[in-house]
Amino acid sequence: MESIQAIKQRFGIIGNDPKLNRSIEKAIQVAPTDISVLVTGESGVGKESIPKIIHQLSHRKHGKYIAVNCGAIPEGTIDSELFGHEKGAFTGATATRSGYFEVADGGTIFLDEVGELPLTTQVRLLRVLENGEFIKVGSSKVQKTDVRIVAATNVNMFEAIKKEKFREDLYYRLSTIEINLPPLRERKEDIHLLFRKFASDFALKYKMPTVKLTDDAVNLLTKYRWNGNIRQLRNVAEQVSVLEQHRTINGVTIQNYLPDTGSNLPAVVNSSKSESDFSSEREILYKVLFDMKGDLNDLKKLTMELMKKGSVSEVQKDNEHLIQKIYGDDKDEAFDAAVEDLEVLSIPQRTKTDESIVSDVEDKYHFAEEIEEEETLSLHDKELELIKKSLERHSGKRKLAAAELGISERTLYRKIKQFDL
Ligand SMILES: Nc1ncnc2c1ncn2[C@@H]1O[C@H](COP(=O)(O)OP(=O)(O)O)[C@@H](O)[C@H]1O
Ligand SMILES: [Mg+2]
After folding, report:
1. What is the pTM of this model?
2. pLDDT of residue 163
3. Do residues 63 and 107 lie in contact, with contact meaning Cβ atoms separated by under 8 Å?
4. What distance in Å separates the CA atoms of residue 190 and residue 184, rounded to the nearest whole number?
5. What's the CA gap between 263 and 167, in Å, rounded?
6. Ligand 1, pocket-test mutation among 50, 230, 238, 276, most atoms within 8 A of CB
7. How far, in whole angstroms, is CA 1 from its chain's centroid?
8. Among 114, 192, 196, 368, which residue carries the largest CB count within 10 Å?
9. Nearest ligand 1 atom, CA 152
10. Which of 182, 139, 143 lies closest to 39, judged by CA?
11. How far is residue 55's CA from residue 35's CA, in Å, rounded to a whole number?
12. Residue 174's CB: how many other CB atoms inside 10 A?
């Protein structure tokens, strides 16, 4: 059996913390078996190395290793990604496709952020874990596969079970062996070691001398909470390496790179969201998209007005509020520039009568609305199709179909009424 030290070297794992060593030892011990493993720990603690170790030290090492981030795949396509689909299973399924469970036959699948799996997928996963059986989306043929599962999560699975977001039976099946990785704040001895490693990596990468820490800087890093764990420490090391001219870093300087260190309040355990919680990135993106959509609608409205009235000053007067909203403080300049562009674009239409310009524009506008409608229509169709297929598969048994679709029986009942099924 390879020693813990050798494994660390092979997989680039830095640190001498006893809890970290114990986790690696567990991975080495469980690797030759086919037992499912659940890796737990906060975001950024280094969970992704564990399934790699397990795969490489197992008899499956010549088989495929597929890492799937369950949180990153849209709910509508995850079943098809994992288990494949039959031609015609849903709109757009023009050919039969193999899923990861078929492709990784004889290998290992790493299900990262497994707590994010929709309930319908959890049902399928439980089945494949229990007897190696799965069914492609839209098929009725049972297929067999031989895949070892290693899953990881940074959410509290007991909470998720309590809130009925995660199946209890699946949790026990996945976590036959649990490997927990300690947060960085509990590995104080490793903090400076990791910083030195990252600083030397970045010095090499950016062709600059390595930054060094004074004692008080080391002291601050050691006392810090590190909510983003090793990922955050690595980021700090990179920022300092790139931005600081003076290569000896003292406490005052390092403090600038550590959000919230001003107070010496104790770490909040299980705080739901912090600045370094990277799951909020998705929320930020959603917000940006919503804002953009709002802007687009405002612009559409303004353009319509301009086209209809043909008089910039009148439109500007009537829509002061909208213009302020879209262009903000620089509104005069930006608005004038936009209007200039618009006038250049609309020159050919000026030869038509006023009426025909308006109807032309209205047609275009109407077209845009239609696209939106079509999209909702096809979504509607897709949902209908999914419900129908699921009911068929379960010979009309609503309870089973609802569980597969990840909705409550009552919602399913409502949809059956709504779609007149
Ligand atoms: N012990 C370690 N030694 C060196 N780098 C590490 C260690 N643990 C984690 N890292 C690095 O930290 C980052 C986050 O690790 P990752 O496995 O993605 O975390 P998690 O999956 O737990 O969120 C990666 O860049 C990884 O290489
Ligand atoms: Mg990860």
Report:
1. 0.65
2. 96
3. yes
4. 8
5. 40
6. 230
7. 36
8. 114
9. 21
10. 182
11. 12
12. 25
